[in-house]
Amino acid sequence: MPPDSLAALLQRHRANEDLNAAVIPAAARNALDLAADAVVGPLDERIIEATGAALDAGHTHYEPVPGIDELRAALAQHLSEATGAGWDAANLLVTAGMQESRFLTLQLIDAGDGATALPQVLHPGVRKALGTRPRETVSLAVDAERRLPRLQAIRAALEGGSRLVYMESPSRLTGATLDADEMAAIATMLADHDASAIIDRGLAPWVAGAVAAPTERVALIGEAFPGAGIVSWLAGYVAVPEDWLPPIQSQKQIMAICTATPAQFGALEAGNLYPQEQPPRLEHMQALRSRLQDRARAAGLDVLAGGAASVLALRLSPSHKAQGLTRLADAGYQVADGSDFGAPDLLRLTVCDAAQAALDLLADA
Amino acid sequence: MPERKKSGTNLLYSMMAEAASYDDAVIMGRGDPDFDTPEHIIAAAKEAMVQNHSDSSPPEGLPELREAIAARVERVSGVAYDPASEIVVTNGGQEALFLMVLTLIGPGDEMIVPEPNYNTYLDSTRFAGGRQIEVDTFPQQNFRADPADVRRNVNERTRALLLVSPNNPAASVISPQDMRDLVQIACDHDLFIISDEIYDLFVYDDVVHTSAAAMPGARERTLTLNALSKAYSMTGWRVGWVTGPAPLMERLRELKAAITGATSIISQYAGIAALTGPQEPVQMMADTYVRRRRAVLEALDEMGIEYGVPEGGQFIFADIGFTGMDSMQFAQRVLSEQHVLVYPGSAFSEARKQYIRMTFLQPEDKLREGLERMKIAMEGIRAELGNGSAS
After folding, report:
1. Sign of dihedral through CA atoms B80, B82, B85, B89?
2. Is 0.90 exceeded by the ipTM?
3. Which of A4, A99, A131 sits opposite B261 (nearest CB)?
4. Is residue A39 very low, low, confident or very high in pLDDT (cuts 50, 70, 90)?
5. Residues of B with CB below 8 A from A43's CB?
6. What is the DSSP letter of B203?
7. Confidence band of A304 (pLDDT split at 50, 70, 90)
8. Which residue in B232, B213, B224, B223 sits closest to B272, CA to CA?
9. Widest pairwise Cα distance in chain B
């Protein structure tokens, strides 16, 4: 290694160390992984068949940068039905998963001269994506229960010059959502200040009923059809007004040319199956979460209300949390630490059968 | 040489869209092999789905794939890398390229690049806030960069050298002696090296591929990219990789995690099959390219079009300056009149407006058909030249 060059390089990146903290430790792969924000379900045979057929048919070459037309249309239809807004295939770009969606929107959507407004509590991948080419940020205070940004904090940021607000609804940590009235108020604020928002709604399919979103001045991002067992195939989306798309698409071309074809064709079939398959999945998860929540509360644990059926967030004292994490780690469980999200008093568990034993360990800690 | 502006990407995509509108189009532009992915690789991908390999991958890629990459790199390039700390799997060579530039180049930094070169390097360097300093190359030397020219362009802001061998679009291959000299420049000035070796299996005649990292003093300052796209006809799968010394790779891995996270799991399993399975399909494709390259060169000779002899890669960079047309006019005319897509050199460099880039990634009958149509176009252009009306 050239010593002078290496020293200079590391010095340059030192300022970003905080932003580059690992999201979820790689060790989680080998543990009983309760750190994800949704359990990976079984893979439907029809997805395997459809993907295999696409590969056999020669879909092994570059596909268009924004994604295959049929998948863009399927995502647009899904979002239109979920939000009530009129999304079209021309508004959609297929990404190589959620992190690329975060990166493309945070780096390419115009933030004007102001700081990008970020809630105090959010997925650590957001700060990592911003850290690759830092933009000025301003922090939005969150409420105590849902850990979602307070409206007055958003208003203050916009009045202070911010022109881009990042939000998660549902929250990646607690699963809580901003309701329709709050979203309407945010939409008004965005219009009043000629500002824009990026909303991560990747957990929205795990919420019963509609998850509100503004219809204008907004980029929606998320995983393509979560719950279908293809999360690690890595297909996500960015939905934006059509005139926002060119710079995002150009950057996608620079970074990757296109999203992997097996992932796209798998997501397409998952989308075809979604109207039939997701409702019973959601119902199952809601029932499971309800049972886990009851058990946790009966054991004296403080469960946040949440909203998304795929996650369960717990509030613990510092000593209880430390002991609990130790016990979980000793037993081979990996959970998401709220500290990584900006909420050091919280832990998050994936809603799944194995979470029950983890809750028992926490209750005994 | 001052930095030159290029805006080739959108230009190429609009031409591809036009070509797609013709039922009888012959595509001699994009670097996408016409062969489908070998069957055993597709079978492995299907098996990975059936086995429900939906487990997550670390950002750096599955350990089995990194081990296969390490074996491949050592076999082809003669350089050993630790799969655990010195290899990161990427979404194709394109992401590898982007990550390498972001790892090494920051605001105000300069990177010396032989010109012409793949246009995405400029896009990536701009994203990083850096600046490309281009070193001219010439068809008389088959577009090989002269190390003396490179050395003259080094200054206190220079951070890295970009070496692309075999080159895209000019198809030049850096000779072993030139590679030694270029690495020596990097050592003398404490520079990093970005080495793009995606076409390393495709060299022609008696030319040999030399990996930059294999040169004395280079390994510890070199990031090298490669991918499965070209060698295994897997452009759609998006599997590439970067190799380099652990301290740099740690930074590159962090960037990978921040930008896209992991690489698609099914593509990674396909990649394992590609690298560890039968290699006959690769040799078959390479042999085919040898024949096709010869066919294109013969046709260009018949048309009286000059070119730098392509020593490697899958391209031919040909000089159409004698037509009096710039490359965009020429490419557009051939496309609209004959439905043959070639890329204008201006998409790669403002200074290469008299060149076109042609690929030979079409079945031979289709390739010959495209070349015949180009001849017809050339006859028309020559007739107009005789009349003094070509433009």
Report:
1. positive
2. yes
3. A99
4. confident
5. 49, 52, 54
6. B
7. very high
8. B232
9. 68
Cβ-defined contact of A99 to B265 (cutoff 8 Å): no
Gap between the Cα atoms of B53 and B64, Å rounded: 13
pLDDT at B233 over 80: yes
Which of B49, B95, B190 lies closest to A256 in CB terms?
Answer: B95
Residue B11 and residue B232 in contact, taking contact as beta carbons nearer than 8 Å: no
Average pLDDT, chain A: 90
CB atoms within 10 A of CB B47: 14
Asked if residues B76 and B200 have their Cβ atoms less than 8 Å apart, the reply is yes
User: How many angstroms separate the CA of residue A241 from the nearest CA in chain B?
Assistant: 20
Residue B146: CB atoms within 10 Å: 17
Q: Which residues contact A312 (CB under 8 A, 6 or more apart)?
A: A175, A289, A292, A293, A296, A303, A306, A348, A349, A350, A351, A355
pLDDT surpassing 50 at residue A32: yes
Which of A60, A100, A234 lies nearest to residue B237, judging by beta carbons?
A60
CA B273 to chain CA centroid, Å, is: 23
Of B58, B257, B267, the CB nearest to A262: B267
Nearest C-alpha neighbor of A182 from the set A174, A195, A170, A164: A170
**pLDDT category of residue B155 using cuts at 50, 70 and 90:** very high
Asked whether the predicted pLDDT for residue B19 surpasses 80, the reply is yes
Tell whether A57 is within 8 A of chain B (Cβ): no
Nearest-by-CA chain A residue for B191:
A5
Q: Is residue B149 less than 8 Å (CB to CB) from chain A? A: no
Residue A26 predicted with pLDDT over 50? no
CB A19 within 8 A of CB A131: yes
What are the φ/ψ torsions at residue B23 (nearest 5 degrees)? -65, -30
| Percentage of chain B modeled with pLDDT above 90 | 83
Under 8 Å between Cβ of B6 and B347: yes
Residue B349: which pLDDT band, with cuts at 50, 70 and 90?
confident
A103·B259 Cβ contact <8 A? yes
Find the DSSP H helices in chain B: 8-20, 39-50, 63-77, 92-104, 120-127, 147-152, 176-188, 246-259, 265-276, 280-303, 327-338, 364-387
- How much is the pTM? 0.92
Place of tokens 């020593």: B311
Report DSSP state, residue A149.
Answer: B
CB contact under 8 A, A5 and B192: yes
DSSP 8-class letter at B169: T
**CA–CA gap between residue A331 and residue A316 (Å, rounded):** 19
* The pLDDT of residue A241: 95
